[in-house]
Task: structure prediction
Amino acid sequence: MNIKIYQINMERDPGHRKFMGLSQQPADVDPGIYDEVFSGDVDCGNLEDVFAKFNTDGHPLHRGHSLSISDVVLTEDGAFYCDTIGFKEIEFDERKAHKPDNLLQIVYVEPNRPPFISEVDNDLKSLQRAVGGHIEPIGIGDGTLLVGNEESKLEGMEGNRHIGDSIIAGPFFIVGAGDEDFRSLTDEETQRYMERFAEPEQITQAEVEGDMGFTFYTF
Result:
């Protein structure tokens, strides 16, 4: 289920609308006071599943607080306001919402799931959260990097994808390699790696454990 989540930024909330039920809102929901805090594909079947997920496990790329009253969830079926009870469909022009300037466009790849296009804050804490630990950038040789968890196999993470004769375990993402820092992927790079990792792979834990040595990655 592909979704976006928006939450009110209190610095742009002079009417103190945050955490208000829809019936308490003094006027129509204003996208201009919202920030986009998540964009991606989640293993959910409906909005109730989304609410449960983002109040328990969350997601490594989620930049906001737990899903709460006044938040807005966008799906393929429309925009839905998180109300005191359930969700209510509303009009919401996402073009008027905000998001940080330092976000990196990435292709995010999880075990047993198709990849999706998303964004991550360009700071160490956010990058580490995206892979569940210390990051390990691996040069691909085309101006992009595969960034995974350097201790993923030691931590027993699930096998994700084969890269040449090696296995990448745990979630990883593809990002652009700048002169001194990461950069957003171009549209062409994004499409290439969405296609490259389109099919999830079934990798046993025994295979992961058998691939614990030093390896060279070949794309």
In short: The first helix runs from residue 47 to 53.
